[in-house]
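Protocol step 4 of 5: obtain the predicted structure for the target chain.
Materials: sequence only (see below). No template structures provided, no constraints applied. The aim of this step is simply to have a reference model before the mutagenesis design in step 5. Sequence pasted as it appears in the construct record:
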Amino acid sequence: MSSRKDEPQSIEEVLRQFTNTNKLEKGLDNVKLETLWSNIMGAGVQAYTVSIRFDGETLFVNLSSSVLREELNYGKDNIVAMLNEGLQKDVIKKLVLR
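Step 4 output (structure tokens):
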């Protein structure tokens, strides 16, 4: 008879079970998205980023520059693809720039 405690598990698996059990995945994605946004978009865009919020399948980004907002609107699909790739999962379906 083998119990669950006797079975070796990787730390990655234990952490995945912990985040799923405690429903922390969405919060972790929010934190990752803020870092990814900064890394992918660069310091220039980050300087005009007021806030980032992930709700459902939509990422809301508030920008303080209307000119930058219009320019980024043209590349929304590429931005979503890069962020999803950085998260290593397809969770963002829509990007709303405000």
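Step 4 remarks: The chain is about 55% helix and 15% strand. The beta strands are 49-55, 58-63, 94-97.
Proceed to step 5.
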